[in-house]
Amino acid sequence: MRNGGKLLVESLAALGAKKAFGVPGESYLAVLDAMHDTVGAFDFVLCRNEGGAAFMASAWGKLTGEPGICLVTRGPGVTNASIGIHTAMQDSSPMLVFVGQVGTDMKGREAFQEIDYRAVFGSMAKWVVEIDQVDRVPEILARAWTTAVSGRPGPVIVALPEDMLTSMSSAQPLRRVAQIAEPSPDQASLEAALSLLSKASRPAIMIGGSNWSDEGREALQEFAEQSDIPVIAALRYQDMFDNHSASYGGDLGLGLSAGVRRTLAEADVVLAINTRFGEISTEGYTLFEVPEPKQKIIHVHGSEREIGKVYIPEIGIHSGPNAFAMALRPVRGNWSAWRAEARAAYEATFDLSPQPSPVDMGIVTAHLRDVLPDDAILTNGAGNFTAWPNKFFKFGKKARLLGPQSGAMGYGFPAAIAAKVAFPERVVVCFAGDGDFQMNCQELATAAQAGAQPIVLVLNNGIYGTIRAHQERHYPERVSGTTMFNPDFAALARAYGFHGERVSRTEEFAGAFERALASTTGAVLELDISPEALTPRVTLSQMRAAALATQKGT
190 in the Ramachandran plot: left (φ > 0), alpha (ψ -120 to 50) or beta? Predict the structure, then answer.
């Protein structure tokens, strides 16, 4: 016999869960008690805020493909965690959120911290369930785990009534879950897709999603290169395709480049694999006309619910990205110049003029491209500063990017901690704005306690840069509520046991970063960024490319 808390923890450990991120609460004490017996196999990473814990679990799922586990208490605990739940949903990141609940004998009375989780999170999570009977813990956990990782991955919330967790059961811990094979393309649809591509004048490939395998990514790159077709990545998924490949043409991120816009606007056939056509990746749903684009779209996705959700495809294929990529065979066409044009436009984005700032981030990012190892992991939250890791770093086959599709501030640092927990031997660099970092800077304590201390670059310009840019555009000379008073970030880092250093001039960065790499306790480098350096200045060649795009009506 065992209680519900022990039954849950033993089941998770048997399924291979290694870490759970959370903040303790009295509503799930039985779970914490059970984890006392799994130290070293299934550990609790003690966080300082449930929002940070949920971000860590979301990032874990995105990085590893296994469900990130988050443990939070009821009411305020889970509402704090909602930002990470929303991010996991938009990121299609597998995640399990276990949240305490009032006892079953008190439900419906608005008891202390009581929430109807299905009502609150029904539209935010992939599935919301409450376990009222202790004997059903293995059954419902099996479904929750499978739901989180299958189809389009996403977050699942499992509510745990306090009295259920302390009830005794003779049920055996869960030992395995259903292994659902990734759906494969049917032969007729595959042949139709290849035929449509072969007849195209200007084909393009658009990719997204994080549930790619190394084999799937390798197969797609081989297909794109042998077929001479340009590949464009959806927002913050550029790490899913080798940026050094001659077929890579850039990403559909914020501040869409003229070259990427032209590639997709002028394409006549677009093979869209594993992407859900979000607002940012379609430039506000203007790159393709809704609901019938002028481009012929072949939409491939592991969830049939994504196909036709926004755009009516010419061909819709229910298939996982890896199965589809490995089924492809090269197609031939006269596309070399078309592909080369997309690649040249991408390479031109790295031709930056000097930035108006004490620390020139163009030079900083170029230095990072030179010195970071091939398997570095970069993370970021939200703000204009994200242009540097997103637009000016080239991700090879082993490098990874963790950035929120939801545009959530505060994601980058917790994500970096999760990455160091998952892969302590890899170099993890977090890009954070001063406002972005202060959303979760208390997690410095989490990182220090867990021994998972990344390198953090805090770009300090004293303002909420993105909002200020919009403000000055729409309400010129009426700046309000966007100027910040900041702490000494380097001193703050040292107070938490990190190496902390302020970089006031560009020429100081190389030495400071070398010291950060050598630090055994992580590092926070505060970079002095002028308020005028909100976004990278473009070069004359980029301005000419933008003008050409305008002349072509794109």
Answer: alpha
How distant, in Å, are the alpha carbons of 45, 209, 264 from that of 256? 38, 19, 11
Say if residues 409 and 439 touch (Cβ distance below 8 Å). Answer: yes
pLDDT in tens, the chain (554 residues): 999 999 999 999 999 999 999 999 999 999 999 999 999 999 999 999 999 999 999 999 999 999 999 999 999 999 999 999 999 999 999 999 999 998 777 777 777 777 888 888 999 999 999 999 999 999 999 999 999 999 999 999 999 999 999 999 999 999 999 989 999 999 999 999 999 999 999 999 999 998 899 999 999 999 999 999 999 999 999 999 999 999 999 999 888 899 999 999 999 999 999 999 999 889 999 999 999 999 999 999 999 999 999 999 999 999 999 999 999 999 999 999 999 999 999 999 999 999 889 999 999 999 999 999 999 999 999 999 999 999 999 999 999 999 999 989 999 999 999 999 999 999 999 999 999 999 999 999 999 999 999 999 999 998 888 888 888 889 988 888 888 899 999 999 999 999 999 999 999 999 999 999 999 999 999 999 976 554 454 443 443 444 444 444 43
Tokens of residue 3, six digits:
């209680």
- Cβ neighbours of 392 (radius 10 Å): 18
Q: Give the three-state DSSP class for 209.
A: coil
Predicted structure pTM score: 0.93
Q: Which of 212, 245, 229 is nearest to 325 (CA)?
A: 212
Antiparallel, parallel or unpaired: β 523-528 and 499-503:
parallel
Domains of the chain: 2-169 (3.40.50.970), 187-346 (3.40.50.1220), 361-528 (3.40.50.970)
Answer whether the bond into residue 291 is a cis peptide, omega within 30°: yes
